Amino acid sequence: MTGALYLGVDLGSTTVKGAVMTEAWELCRTWYESNDGEPLVKLLGFVRAVLDSLPEGAYIRNVCSTGYGANLAKSALAGQLAEVETLAHQRAARAFDPETTFVIDIGGQDMKCLKVEDGRSVSVTINEACSSGCGAFLETFARQLNMTTKEFVDAALSSKSPCDLGSRCTVFMNSKVRQAQREGAATNDIAAGLCVSIVRNALHKVLRLKSTDDLGGHVVVQGGTFLNDAVLRVFETHTGLQVIRPDLAGLMGAYGAAFLARDKTPAEAPDWNPDEVAFDLKEARKIEYRYGGCGNRCQLTMYRFPSGRKFISGNRCDFALKGKGGHKKNEGFIEKKLALLFDREILPVEDAPRGTVGIPRVLNMYEYFPFWAAVFKELGFHVELTPFSTQKMLTDATDTIPSQSLCLPVKLAHGHIVKLAKEGVKDIWFRVRRANRSSFMKRTIPTPVRLSAAIRKR
């Protein structure tokens, strides 16, 4: 192991992984460890150990990070690259099978499903906020059953009649497991049932597959959860496919990041400099404060590293990331945004051969008005846009609202349409979502009540 090496780091939700690769794409070292709530400490310890073990003549040429903490790792390590997880996982899967058609990665807290065509990801599906169906889900129930992870896997593999526990979230699954225990179900059948729920969740709730043929013939499964032989067995049984599970299943993010570090390093790029890294976090400055540049007033944590880089976490918008911040930085932001959306060149009434079309300034018109304004102008319409919402608009539409239980945005939509109708606008464009129609143009009826009835009918 001499010459240039490439380090890939995957700073995940529950684990920290690393992989070191040579110029010839040979893997020479890996590392996989729980972060124990201190991801930076674990990460820096690993990188320090790698540097201390390098033989003479070997050096780290470039570092690429990925995972939940990709940007944090990039800042802490003064790295050159940070890539999204999906790209890293897809790159790693292709290393095992260049003809990969689908990649399913199940980690500790999330699940990523990638459809691949001609070596490129063409669609990405991830689970929602709930971590049901991921590694942490199984770990929770293994502890609840008083088992180690190995004991849990062995028990599940020995089951001949897995319990049908469904594929709901951890909170509801608790009651299912308790019910199965009360009914005398064996522990191994409960363990197997939980593994079945993982696969059902992936295939039917995340991917919403109609047929396993959609997966193609070259499926790569990876992530720490697929190190569980029971989950792998259930997946192959359920799909009828023989899939590829790399021996590095839990390290594929870091492995892919190492590939990307190797692939994306220009010949003229400077070598990574470990002297810029604060391996003792005491050398890094940690500041906690509230950002005052907007109404969110986020509680932020900022790390400043000896390399001069900084990383800010806790922000709910990107204001705090744009320079020094402060109230003056964002003065007039809302006004500027509204002007960009609604200050459009509209055909005057006398120059509009096809008449006037009214557009209520509600709901998704706050995103799509520039498009519709351009379309109707090109078609020869004068666009009559309602003003910003007021309390009077809301109260004026009370008689047209079929139920007081309707949400406020719907009530406001009625108010805007009523205003257009009262002003004599004969045609109103109001975009709605339906299974077989996405929008319609309605010839308005003089009275707001009749107009509302027509909307309800649709």
Keywords:
458 residues, single chain, 16 strands, 5-stranded mixed sheet, disordered C terminus, 4-stranded mixed sheet, alpha/beta
Q: Order of strands across the biggest sheet?
A: 3-2-1-4-5
Name the beta content range: 15-25%
Low-confidence stretches: 324-328, 435-458
Output the helix-strand order.
Answer: EEEHEHEHEEEHHHHEHHEEEHEHEHHEEH
User: Please, what is the average pLDDT?
Assistant: 82
User: With helices defined by DSSP (H or I, 4 residues minimum), what is the helix count?
Assistant: 14
Percent range for helical residues? 25-40%
- Backbone shape: globular
What is the terminal separation in angstroms? Answer: 70 Å
Largest sheet, in brief, is: 5 strands, mixed
Give the structural class.
alpha/beta
What's the total count of β strands?
16
Structure description:
The chain has 14 helices and 16 strands. The chain starts with a strand and ends with a helix. It has a five-stranded mixed sheet. 36% of the residues are buried. With 458 residues, it is an alpha/beta fold. Helix 3 crosses helix 9, helix 5 runs parallel beside helix 8 and helix 7 packs across helix 8. Strand 6 and strand 7 form a beta hairpin. The chain is 36% helix and 20% strand.
